[in-house]
Amino acid sequence: MYIKNFLPFLQSPAQFWNLKGGDKPFAPHCPIDLPLSCQNHTDIQDSCCFEYPGGIFLQTQFWDYVPSRSGLDDDELEKQLGPLDSFTIHGLWPDNCRGGFEQFCDDSLAIDDVYYLLNSDQFNNDKVNLEISGKDLLAELNRLWKSNNGNDESLWIHEYNKHGTCIKTIRPSCYSRWNDDSVIENATDLKKQSVYDYFRVAYNVHKKLDSFKVLKEEGIEPSLKKTYTRDEIQAALNKGFKDHNVYFACDRHQALNEVWYYHVLQGSLLGEEFKPIDTLRTGLSRCPDKGIKFYPKGYIPSGNGGGGHNGRQLRGIIRLSGYEGFLIKNGRWMIKGTPANFLLLKAPFGGYHLKSRTGYCGVSEDGLLTCNKHVGNAGQFDYNAEKGGYLGYSGSSEWGATNLPRGNIQSFVYLKGDIPKPYEFKLKFIKS
């Protein structure tokens, strides 16, 4: 039976409601006995109270220590790299329970501004009892959520559009249900409330997970001379995360630069009932067993000219493993004719954009690969020339089709989902 069938009976006994949440009047009205995300064994249809399919929440942190140039003082370093005694926020990501993740889920919710939104009267007045004002939240984002390209707001916009639009329990329709005092009547303002809460909750989770403090308490501090073992760092981070395994990674200088905390969630994101779990990340973290550096902010290692990504692009065609044919400019599979030329462009915040003559490529909600998007809606693809040159998307490198192309007939290409496709393959990018 679905939760919505119980709603009429739950509305009067207040003890059945989970009224936790930072801000009124938008406390999420959800039953207190909901199962944890990804751990339920019954169908729960109320998407305002139960997060699915993105029930695994990652709070990701960076230790960016390389400045744009040498000779910066402490104030200049903090403005560029964040506080000298704190990891910075990279994001709050809703991964799927069965692996992979959705991205850029709802174009209608996408934003192109955070600064003016948080400075608006909606989040800076006494009519609503907010946990933190929009202006104060903006100040914290400026301090703690730093971009590698110098434009912090562009990173915030990217993170909300890629990940925030995929969080079901903060959709505007949920706020319209919980708008007890009818403070907000405008649909646009409900959408803005969702954006505010995404950043507020991401900031709150980061506050509770002070990686710098946890490491320091175990004697692991930034140093130009001292090094640490993987076991030492792992033990310290795990201790600060209720003895759950934490994922961390190193850069090409074998220096610590990333920490990922995994959670499941009970109820709405607004309730902030995050429960720590062990990392689900497999594979190497680029950290050696010993000799790991933890450089202070402001240090530029030998052979590093400064921060940021280069603008490298690759040109090539895309073929399918195990089958004849290639992709054409709209992202479909064809056997007859000429393969399309595609560009792989380094994305500003990791991964690659894939582009053909018809536009940027992405994957629709039902998994369909399409190439007709503008850059603001471009998906982020994975690509590693040293690992076969295969294209991945949202954590998966498996693709499929429901039928074989023949003659001039094209076949749609889908990212592999829960339902197997008759024809399954990998997409190999072949540089020209």
UniProtKB/TrEMBL annotation:
Any Gene Ontology biological process: mRNA catabolic process
Keywords: Cytoplasm, Disulfide bond, Endonuclease, Glycoprotein, Hydrolase, Lyase, Nuclease, Signal, Vacuole
Residues annotated as catalytic: H90, E159, H163
InterPro entries (UniProt xref): Ribonuclease_T2_eukaryotic, RNase_T2-like, RNase_T2-like_sf, RNase_T2_His_AS_1, RNase_T2_His_AS_2, RNaseT2L_C
EC number assigned by the record: 4.6.1.19
Presence of the UniProt keyword Lyase in the record: yes
Cell location: Cytoplasm; Vacuole lumen
Protein's UniProt keywords contain Membrane: no
Pfam (any one): Ribonuclease_T2
Domain RNase T2-like C-terminal: 322-418
Enzyme superclass (EC): lyase
Record PROSITE patterns: RNASE_T2_1, RNASE_T2_2
GO CC annotation: cytosol; extracellular region; fungal-type vacuole; vacuolar lumen
GO terms of molecular function: hydrolase activity; ribonuclease T2 activity; RNA binding
UniProt record similarity statement: Belongs to the RNase T2 family.
Protein role: Rnase which modulates cell survival under stress conditions. Released from the vacuole to the cytoplasm during stress to promote tRNA and rRNA cleavage and to activate separately a downstream pathway that promotes cell death. Involved in cell size, vacuolar morphology and growth at high temperatures and high salt concentration.
Protein name: Ribonuclease T2-like
